[in-house]
Amino acid sequence: MEINYEEQNIENAQGSGKPQRFVRLRHRRALTVEEIENRIEQSTTLTRADVRGVLAELRRVIVDSLCEGRRFHLQGIGYLSLSAGLALPEERKEATVTGKDIYLRGINFLPEEKLLNTIKKQVSFHKSDCPSKSITYTAEELWPKVESYLSSHQYLTTRIMREEFVLGKNKALEWLTKWVEDGHLTKQGTHHLPIYFRKPD
C-alpha cells in the first residue's frame, strides 16, 4: 500500500538561516462510519447494526475511562490517554496552581508494537507527482483555515502554525500577534511558551 508524500522546506528554521527539510504525508480522506460498518460486516458475522452498536458503546467506555483518569487499552491496537497543559498568565506565574489553570491539551495514542510492526511491513511511500507549493497567505486566505483548525483543536502555538500551515517561525509569530491585536485570539501561557486561544464571540 503506497502513501504519497511531499518534501517541503521551512526557510530560516529556528533562526539558523538554513532551511529545514521535512516530509508531509498526503492522507486520503477518512473512512465514513458506513464504510467501516460495511468492511466489518463483509468479513465477520456481524451486521451493520451490530457494528454500529459496538462502536457507540466503545466510544462511551473510552470517554468514561479517560474522564476517570484511566488510560484506555484496546488490545491489539494501543493505548489512549489524556494530556494536559498549564496556562498560567505571566502575572500569576508564581501563584498556586488550581484546577482552573489546567486545560486539556489533547488525547495521546500509543500504538502497540505489534500493530506498528504490521503496518511497517505493509506500507510504502511514494513521492507525489503533484506536490503542493508553499504559498504566501493573505489574511482572507489564512484565517478561515485557522478557524477550521480551532473548530476541532483548543489552541494554537507558533509550532502548530509552522507545521500545519507551512510557515516560518517569524511569519507564524507575526500572524498570531496580528490576530491577538485584531481581537480574534487571546494570548495565555508563559513568555517562553505562549498559547493562543480563540476569543469568544
Automatic annotation (TrEMBL):
<dbReference type="Pfam" id="PF18291">
    <property type="entry name" value="HU-HIG"/>
</dbReference>
<feature type="domain" description="HU">
    <location>
        <begin position="1"/>
        <end position="127"/>
    </location>
</feature>
<keyword id="KW-0238">DNA-binding</keyword>
<dbReference type="InterPro" id="IPR041607">
    <property type="entry name" value="HU-HIG"/>
</dbReference>
<protein>
    <recommendedName>
        <fullName>HU domain-containing protein</fullName>
    </recommendedName>
</protein>
<dbReference type="GO" id="GO:0003677">
    <property type="term" value="F:DNA binding"/>
</dbReference>
<dbReference type="InterPro" id="IPR010992">
    <property type="entry name" value="IHF-like_DNA-bd_dom_sf"/>
</dbReference>
